[in-house]
Amino acid sequence: MNHAFPQALVPYGWDAALQQSFLPFTEDGLVPVRVAAVDRGRCDVITPGGPQRAALDPALPTGDPAAAPCTGDWGALRAGDPPVLAALLPRRTAIVRSAASGASRGQVLAANVDTVAIAVSLETRLALGRVERLLALAWESGARPVVVLTKADRSPDPDAAAAQVAEAAPGADVVTVSAATGQGVDVAAAVLTGTVVLLGPSGAGKSTLGNALLGADLLATGAVRDADGKGRHTTVRRELLPLPGGGVLIDTPGLRGVGLFDAAEGVQRAFAEIEELAEGCRFGDCGHDTEPGCAVQAAIAAGALPPRRLDSYRKLVRENERIAARSDARLAAERANRWKTISKAQRQGYRMRGGKDKGR
User: Can you tell me the mean pLDDT for 44-64?
Assistant: First the structure.
């Protein structure tokens, strides 16, 4: 059986660890692929021989948005007409938000991501709460977040804006760019490494930034409305493109709203200074409100912590706890339904055996 290393997939992120995890599939004659896009029950994949359009194996968990194939996944392709994506390899990282429907399930936006580029437009008023939300999402994924401030040429004071964002993004790089003038694009290209996903609302300049990184106009762009500063959804699906300096880029549709899903650790990372301050509170269960000896409130009083940060932290903690409670309730209901099914089958089995015994 051919276990040759697929060099053609190296620019897309293939490495020795993936080669090892793929070995069981080589025995069945399958080939490794990376999922570039998924739509209408089919997917575009990058194979060692080039791009192909593939069908999805019915055994894949397409009904679960948290486990269904998505852009960035590595998988195993079975030859055929059409070829079939037969299996997925375990994900190293995954960007998961709560399902847009409000259901108690997560939805994966992109898989096996190394760097999350959070695009923030300097053309409109800074929405620091949205930046913090996306940072929590990024930290939770296991990838490295970088905040990219776009359209710097349209800001009266980009340095001041960068300072504001840096205060709201502890532990994350903050880069200021202007695709129109080329300012900062080389810096962004240097810090956005590996598999890079662009996140942000419509009009944040994601696709324009992506084109600057790609060195070509491969992503559709659109103008921002003057009335509300919002843009059209020029990206309609997630897709994966190779970067000229190595690595790959995943562009995503603009996110109108992003709900957290099981992101407790991500929230802690996004508000690392509050978590650190809380360790100095007198009481272990301090609510950082009116309790005596609260180190967080002391930092606010001293001007070391903006009150807005604590308000945003509380909001995201409450939201994450609500979705966790809904998820727990759903899991409990699913377990109860399974036991009902099992019990019903057992009762039917007992009745059948009882009837046979009486007839002897």
Answer: 94
Of 113, 20, 35, the residue nearest 77 (C-alpha) = 35
Could you list the residues known to form a binding site, using ranges: 150-153, 200-208, 281, 286, 288, 294
234, pLDDT greater than 90? no
Q: List, for residues 83-99, the tens digit of each pLDDT value.
A: 999 999 999 999 999 86
The first and second tokens of residue 109, run together, are 């936006």
Residue numbers belonging to the annotated binding site for GTP: 150-153, 200-208
Q: Identify the band that residue 224 occupies on the pLDDT scale cut at 50, 70 and 90.
A: very low
> What residues contact 162, with CB distance under 8 A and at least 6 apart?
149, 174, 176
Residue list, annotated binding site for Zn(2+): 281, 286, 288, 294
**Long-range CB contacts for residues 11-20, cutoff 8 Å, separation at least 24:** 11/242, 11/246, 11/247, 11/248, 12/46, 12/240, 12/242, 12/248, 13/112, 13/114, 13/194, 13/195, 13/247, 13/248, 14/74, 18/74, 18/89
Structural domains in the chain, CATH included, are 7-88 (2.40.50.140), 94-251 (3.40.50.300), 271-305 (no CATH)
Q: What is the pLDDT of residue 259?
A: 86
Q: pTM for the whole thing?
A: 0.84
Taking 50 as the threshold, does the pLDDT of residue 58 lie above it?
Answer: yes
